[in-house]
Amino acid sequence: MVLQQEDSVPIWGWGRASTTVKIVGSWSPEDTTSVVVDDNGRWKGKIKTTRYGGPYTLRVFSKNSNDEVLLRDVMLGEVWVCSGQSNMEWASGNGITNQQEEIGAADYPNIRFFSLAKQASGTLQDDCRAVWEICTPTVMQKRSAVAYFFGRHLHQQLNVPIGLIVSAWGGTPAEVWIPKELVPDTPEQQKLTASRKNPWWPVEAGVLYNSMVSPLFPYRIAGVIWYQGESNRDAAQPYAMLMKQLIQTWRKGFDKEFPFYQVQIAPYNYKSTDNGPALIREAQELVARTVPRTEVVVTNDIGEYGNIHPARKQEVGIRLGDIALKENYGMSDKEVRSPFLTHAEIEKDRVILTFSHAEEGLICTGKVVKGLQIAGEDGVFVEAKANIKESRLIAYAPGIKRPVTVRYCFDDATVGNIFSKQGLPVAPFQKDHLTK
């Protein structure tokens, strides 16, 4: 297993009431924590961990009952929870770019997976089904590709053991990962839940929070990466609120305001009628702007029109890792965030668009910008042209003298081609009510 380094790490379990339980890690054998089992047969103590290293042992014992548990091959390092739906669950063996080469090279004894079995529950659980596994090619090809590439990037840059707790289930909406009482029980929500009924995945609010999140509390972690949103596209309006509730509740459960890094859902032909996928991406950006210690990774350059599970999982993991390396570990001076629209202003028939995180300028990888559209007062969108001037985009459309709305890749499946000079894709956007 991997325990969070240089921290006060909870260790908990069950035993006979009134028994004294002692906890000692071989990294500090002189430090022993003692706790008493309560009347319900539960106990929890905290043990201090030192700087990364291992392998160590963790000994839990009780002298007055002769009970003992000895955990071997315990590493101290960085622990991350990796959660969401199918793009987080997606295993390398199911298909990724350079699949055979990546699987063959996945021999990292100090990267460890703890992948929860998929199980739903109507009531809170205090245990889960999973085992710690050392990363080998055999293990890696069956486990989360995004988690692996994220963990590998951290491991290579930090040179510390990495623990990856994977709790993901394809097809699941955000509501199942949040306590049921925090999801509004409205007729609209009830109708939506009924419409999602499918034998392949749970849809009732709270059922995975109960069985695949709550049992992890209060394991000590460094942070969370999250790849989900596709299953909320048919009711996108409350998504930002749901994610804020999720982050707040998980932070309370883990007793830490940990960093929470989302992945924006990628382009795909959802055949939506209400632009739901674009609204989900907009909500994900809103969460990153308004919730402390959150970020969002943009993926509108790696989507596939006919594949909801794009193969380029390496970029996703590396982009998540780059943000963690800079924000968590202070390891990078480079720009790790995608450009986001910050300001739109009309000059005659032009729209001047200004972006954050593009101090060195923007580039277009094609002859023309893809997915950029402008609408006038009639609300009819037409393809727009654009000139790039450093971190600004000057957009215009023949025939539209008074722009009212501008948007970029604000649909199901358009793959964008504007990037920062660091190679990070410009985030999709829609800006209404443009003024001079």
From TrEMBL:
Keywords, ordered alphabetically: Hydrolase
Organism domain of life: Bacteria
Residues spanning the membrane: none
Domain Sialate O-acetylesterase: residue ranges: 78-313
Identification of the protein by name: Sialate O-acetylesterase
